[in-house]
């Protein structure tokens, strides 16, 4: 018989914001959620194994670049609603949210090590009458085939009866995490009705007007993957268009803008690097398990090849890159971020270094990169590898540099901006 009374009591505690919430993993997913829940009136305990990260959070300092989160974090720490620890053991919590990383191995399969560490951590406590929320990105059927059996075997409790569980995938964008946690529709895949109700009350406690969408456990896993894979495939298509444009001697950026203009059925993104910790990784979760996922596999192959494609373009434009002084502007995987995980810009720099180029990297968001003065001191080539908005202000300094070529992966400028320097965009013919 379902332990309805006890789980209904948990529902009441969440409605009254008396529930204690533990969040395992204080990275770019877990920390924003911890802060938002704390500022929504919940008592939140953030768990992480990184002692430096914990010290930073205790001092209200965000361990990565996110100005909105930094401000939010100060409020949640000063209120006393958010505390952090390296363990959940012996803490009487009501809701446990897993936001640990789910990276891929070198072979492309999921690395479950962080997930198993977190599961072992939470099963050290009594899970009776608790709510487990899985926020991490998971391959389909992971919850049904691995997580639930693991929890039940370790605790001798029954999922859906003794404790509730739901998959509630995050879909936030780096740099917009706080706003999107408040505003984005919430996908909830509960193991049963009471799990759905508890999860709904929790996220409605952040924003009562938030859209709540219900599906199955596996449906929720797939919804996150479908979201990221769709974006990744669209980026791959834009990059293939860029390569076609190079071949046919036109400006791919211009053609895409023309195709999109006032035409609702066409929304092609501009070409550029596609990477980061989620998009390419999440694509492999399906491609490795479905024998006919040819579109996903082709997109991954194309997007991963773009850094090498650009290297080949540079060789055609400048000859051998050995010994050349090359300034790379931007090394994070996206604009306005300091995140280097699976960054195509990092891959580009690695290839340049392997070819014997003399590379200087400048990124205003990433520590331990060169400053602008050093970056523009004596480059022969300049590569705009990340579309940080700050680079828009670098036009004059690039013009005054000794560089003979600017290669713009993102099409941030126009040819007319540079009179005496060869300027080439990715997706533009240069023959």
Structural commentary:
The chain has an eight-stranded mixed sheet, sandwiched between helices. The chain folds into two domains: 4-215, 3-Layer(aba) Sandwich (Rossmann fold), CATH 3.40.50; 227-425, 3-Layer(aba) Sandwich (Rossmann fold), CATH 3.40.50.720. Helix content is 42%, strand content 13%. The protein is an alpha/beta fold and 431 residues long. It has helices at 4-15, 30-39, 51-58, 67-79, 113-122, 142-155, 177-183, 193-204, 217-248, 252-260, 279-287, 294-318, 344-354, 372-375, 395-400, and strands at residues 20-24, 43-47, 82-85, 95-98, 131-134, 164-167, 186-190, 212-215, 325-329, 358-362, 381-384, 405-408, 422-425. The chain is built from 15 helices and 13 strands.
- Which homologous superfamily in CATH is the superfamily of the largest domain? NAD(P)-binding Rossmann-like Domain
Query: Quick check: average pLDDT?
Result: 92
Order of helix and strand elements from N to C terminus: HEHEHHEEHEHEHEHEHHHHEHEHEHEE
What is the number of E strands?
13
The domain count comes to 2
What is the count of helical runs? 15
Structural class: alpha/beta
Please summarize the sheet with the most strands: 8 strands, mixed
């Amino acid at each position: 018989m379902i332990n309805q009374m006890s789980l209904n009591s948990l529902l009441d505690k969440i409605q009254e914001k008396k529930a204690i919430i533990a969040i395992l993993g204080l990275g770019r997913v877990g920390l924003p959620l911890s802060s938002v829940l704390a500022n929504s009136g919940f008592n939140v305990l953030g768990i992480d194994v990184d002692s430096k990260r914990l010290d930073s959070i205790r001092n209200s300092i965000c361990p990565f670049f996110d100005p909105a989160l930094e401000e939010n974090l100060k409020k949640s720490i000063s209120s006393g609603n958010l505390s952090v620890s390296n363990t959940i053991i012996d803490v009487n919590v009501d809701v446990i949210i897993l936001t640990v990383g789910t990276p891929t191995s070198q072979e492309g399969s999921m690395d479950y090590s962080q997930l198993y560490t977190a599961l072992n951590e939470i099963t050290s406590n009594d899970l009776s009458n608790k709510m487990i929320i899985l926020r991490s990105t998971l391959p389909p059927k992971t919850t049904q085939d691995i997580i639930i059996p693991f929890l039940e075997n370790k605790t001798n409790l029954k999922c859906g009866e003794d404790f509730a569980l739901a998959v509630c995938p995050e879909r936030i964008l780096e740099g917009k995490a706080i706003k999107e946690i408040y505003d984005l529709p919430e996908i909830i895949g509960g193991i049963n009705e009471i799990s759905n109700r508890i999860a709904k009350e929790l996220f409605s406690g952040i924003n009562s007007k938030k859209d709540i969408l219900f599906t199955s456990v596996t449906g929720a896993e797939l919804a996150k993957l479908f979201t990221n894979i769709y974006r990744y495939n669209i980026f791959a298509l834009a990059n293939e268009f860029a390569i076609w444009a190079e071949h046919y001697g036109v400006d791919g950026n211009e053609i895409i803008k023309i195709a999109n203009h006032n035409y609702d059925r066409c929304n092609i993104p501009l070409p550029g690097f596609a990477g980061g910790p989620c998009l390419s990784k999440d694509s492999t979760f399906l491609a490795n398990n479905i024998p006919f996922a040819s579109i996903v596999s082709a997109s991954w192959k194309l997007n991963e090849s773009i850094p090498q494609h650009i290297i080949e373009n540079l060789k055609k434009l400048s000859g051998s890159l050995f010994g050349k002084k090359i300034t790379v502007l931007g090394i994070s995987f996206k604009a306005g971020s300091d995140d280097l995980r699976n960054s195509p810009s990092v891959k580009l720099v690695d290839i340049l270094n392997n070819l014997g180029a003399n590379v200087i990297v400048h990124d205003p968001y990433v520590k331990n990169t060169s400053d602008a003065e050093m970056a523009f001191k004596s480059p022969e080539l300049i590569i705009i590898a990340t579309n940080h908005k700050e680079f828009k202000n670098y036009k004059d300094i690039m013009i005054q540099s000794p560089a003979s070529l600017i290669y713009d992966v993102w099409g941030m400028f126009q040819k007319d901006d540079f009179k005496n320097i060869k300027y080439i965009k990715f997706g533009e013919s240069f023959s």
